[in-house]
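Example record

One chain of 419 residues, shown exactly as stored in the release files.
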Amino acid sequence: MANRIMDIINSHRENVCACGVQHETAVRDVEIGSGIISEVGEILKKNGFTKKLLLVADKNTLKASEGIEEALKDFEVEYKIYDDLRVATMENVEEIEELIKGKDISVISVGSGSLNDPCRLACARQDKLLSIFATAPSMDGFASNGAPIVNKGFKSSYPAKSPEVIIGDTKILAAAPARLKAAGFGDMIAKYIALVDWKISALLIDEYYCEDVAGLTRSAIDQLIGMADKVTQNDEETAGRIFEALLMTGLGMSYTKTSRPASGAEHVIAHLMECKEIEKGIVPNFHGEDVGVCTLKMLKYYNELADHPSIDTKEENVDWDDVYNWYGHMADDVRKLNNPTITEKVDIKKLKECWPQIIEIIRSVPGYEECKEAMVKAGCKITLEDIDKTQEFYDECEKYSPFMRYRLTLLRMKDMIVL
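Predicted structure tokens for this chain:
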């Protein structure tokens, strides 16, 4: 499995893409296999990792990776073990930075998501080698070079670094809790909305778009949706293929230096819900759970838009005082992202003229019913009740989420579209 990923990486290193860009990634080695945990030390050695290592994990992921300490017996290992890290904050980044600053040391992050992200940013800032040992196929950011971090209550994606080495033991991945594996599936289904939003933005405002990278992401999702009924099974082959699909979308982000191939309107809504929950002292769900439900909401909305063969358009009219008041302590961040606002680049005449093409783009991906059926098979949460959200809370987050990113999505243009 890993050979396929490395073939993709090597092919892009050797050839300029049709989009005119030489796609490169810091990832130099991907190892996926059964029982491969015993080889972690040797894998790091052959990739030039230092004698000193900082191992970052939480109590759950360290327990899941039994045998890793023995595999690292030839290294001088320091530890940063969290109780249960569900949300990555700038404080976590700074804690890890303090442990590696000025030292001849490399980092291994044992876990996924919120454990990887602060390591990704800290290692980028301190120029240290990073390896990720995955304990669950629960998200798509393993190969990404961006790090979603909460800073003073506001969640942003920071330019960071991809890990040099990614390791997945299919025994451990297959044994991961069903809830985590289902969350990973929900995160992957979101890529359909991400690709739609990205292509529409390229059409309307000439945002950079790469058909090859989009195709890489699309093939990964299509591969995964065909395995929906096997997602929660303790099956090594399925777990390995899911992990491979997750790596492919992460590579797309690494190649484009943006989360565009993997994140659209649905992700922004989920990020905003997480910020609002953190503000209230609520520990958010696993990211892929919220993203999956938001994806179904956006698929339903986008499909309804596509049922209209033509539209009228109007200039956007935003009550910015209302927006900033709703965001509260996050208002300064939102002001910076909307000065100027992304919709100033949109020609409403072009939006109207291009509507048939936009319908085509929406209908190029599986629709609401097909994705919902696959998510049910995969054991995903599919309703607001499933993720403990009220309709009122969701509606507010959907309404205000477009202003949280300087990014054009179909949802961002909702006020400009007259049906």
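Notes: The domain at 2-176 is CATH 3.40.50.1970 (Rossmann fold).
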